[in-house]
Design a protein that fits this description.
about 160 residues, HIT family, subunit A, 5-stranded antiparallel beta sheet
């Protein structure tokens, strides 16, 4: 059984959180590359995870501060899934992963770092992407800087 195990994220989950909700704050930014917004829709947006499980880890969230799927309006639900599909397409085009983990953690007990704001994780996967580095060296190898990947994803959307 293969497991997506990311012990290096323990530091992040134990660290002091940014004041406020990143899913409410980031979309209000002026579009700087540090916000890591990839795509903006009418009801939802996508952004790179600043603490990725793997290179290309994207999160899709509604603009509206809502906790669960059951509170979404039809338009939000539809655009959320369309944005997930668009994100997968972009990642396939740019990074060519072998597979994806896609998940929603509803509630902090389920693992949601921002339990109050619904978001979908899209994690690209490659054969052999888990190795000894996180276990032996407490280091995760992410082969591309977020700034560079963000630029490539934004450029790919223009085509």
């Amino acid at each position: 059984m293969e497991k997506l195990w990311a012990p290096w994220r323990a530091e992040y989950t134990k660290s002091k959180k940014t004041k406020g909700c990143i899913f409410c704050l980031k979309p209000k930014s002026k579009g700087g590359k540090k916000d890591y917004i990839v795509t903006r829709g009418e009801y939802v947006f996508s952004m790179l995870n600043a603490y990725p499980y793997n290179n290309g880890h994207i999160m899709v969230a509604p603009y509206r501060h809502i906790q669960g799927l059951d509170g979404l309006k039809k338009e939000e639900t539809s655009e959320l899934m369309e944005m997930v599909n668009k994100s997968i397409y972009l990642l396939k085009t740019i990074l060519k992963p072998s597979a994806f983990n896609i998940g929603i953690n509803i509630g902090s007990i389920a693992g949601a770092g921002y339990a109050e704001h619904l978001h979908v994780h899209i994690v690209p996967r490659w054969q052999g992407d888990t190795n000894f580095m996180p276990i032996i060296a407490k280091t995760k190898v992410v082969p591309e800087a977020l700034d560079e990947l963000h630029k490539r994803l934004k450029d790919a959307q223009k085509k």
